[in-house]
Amino acid sequence: MDYVLTNNEQPKSVYAFTKSLKLKEEDFYKHFNSFDAIEGSFWKDLFNEIALKVKSQEVYPDYSARERILSYFFTLTEEMKSTRSFITYSIKHAGKGFSTPKILVKAKLSFEEFISEVLHEGIDKSEIIDRKFISDKYKNALWLQLAFIINFWINDDSENFEKTDEAIEKGINVTLDLMSRGPIDNLLEYGKFLVQQGKGKVKFTF
Predict the structure, then answer these.
(1) How far is Cα 43 from Cα 124, in angstroms, rounded to an integer?
(2) Residue 158 CB: number of other CB atoms within 10 A?
(3) Among 28, 60, 95, 130, whose CB has the most other CB atoms within 10 angstroms?
(4) Alpha carbon of 73 to those of 10, 27, 69, 149, 201: distances in Å?
(5) How far is CA 125 from CA 24, 70, 102, 118, 128, in A?
(6) Any residues with CB less than 8 A from the CB of 42 and at least 6 apart, and which?
(7) Are the C-beta atoms of residues 43 and 50 closer than 8 Å to each other?
(8) Which residues of 115-138 are buried (b: 16+ CB within 10 A; e: fewer)?
(9) Residue-wise pLDDT tens digits, 86-130
(10) DSSP code of residue 98
(11) Where are the alpha helices (DSSP H) in the chain?
(12) Cα separation of 6 and 19, whole Å?
């Protein structure tokens, strides 16, 4: 962290980096195979820590799926404050594209593990509706929401990141509203009912 924040780039080589620290190059490779692997480990550990911290809350068992996801997002942005400079560097150097950056691949798996557990419980409790071919994509929608929030937080210049808090609340509530039962679901169920009862044929008598 100190090196990249001081030089705004990764070391030129593992050899040069370990030499500056008076370490053997082989000692580095006992733990990581590249500098990207170090960044990836940082993100994975951060996401694992957030999940553990959220689950350890005394009120967590009583939380709804919506409250658990909101708690995760709020806890993440709060914890990121302590390493804001490194996170800003890491994200800005991660590259742009539609695929998940290499440094976030393991972090994404950690995120999906937590979110999938919350979503499954939410479906069991009817807080979230189980939609064929769509429910499996819910976690992807929330991952995109997380990516948006991290980028929003990096560029947020409001006092104590108040705009980020607002973005989380509005974004997660809208996303969870779309995952909950709505008028379209009621319409589809009504249509299914009509098909089952009269094979879709309705006779009007005046």
Answers:
(1) 30
(2) 10
(3) 28
(4) 29, 36, 6, 8, 48
(5) 55, 18, 35, 11, 8
(6) 86, 90
(7) no
(8) beebbeebbeeebbbeeeeeeeeb
(9) 999 999 998 777 689 999 999 999 999 999 999 999 999 999 999
(10) S
(11) 2-7, 14-20, 25-29, 35-55, 65-80, 84-92, 105-124, 138-154, 162-179, 183-198
(12) 17
Q: What is the pTM of this model?
A: 0.86
| pLDDT attached to residue 49 | 97
Query: Which CA distances in Å does 104 have to 40, 95, 135?
Result: 6, 11, 23
Cβ neighbours of residue 24 under 8 Å, at least 6 residues apart? Answer: 18
Q: Do 75 and 67 contact (CB within 8 A), yes or no?
A: no
Q: Give the per-residue pLDDT at 96.
A: 77
Question: In this structure, what token pair is assigned to residue 64?
Answer: 């709804």
Cβ(188)–Cβ(194) under 8 Å?
A: no
Residue 194's pLDDT is 62
Tokens representing residue 12 in the block: 């030129």
pLDDT of residue 203: 53
Instruction: Write out residues in the chain with pLDDT < 70, as ranges.
Output: 98, 182-206
Q: Can you tell me whether residue 95 is helix, strand or coil?
A: coil
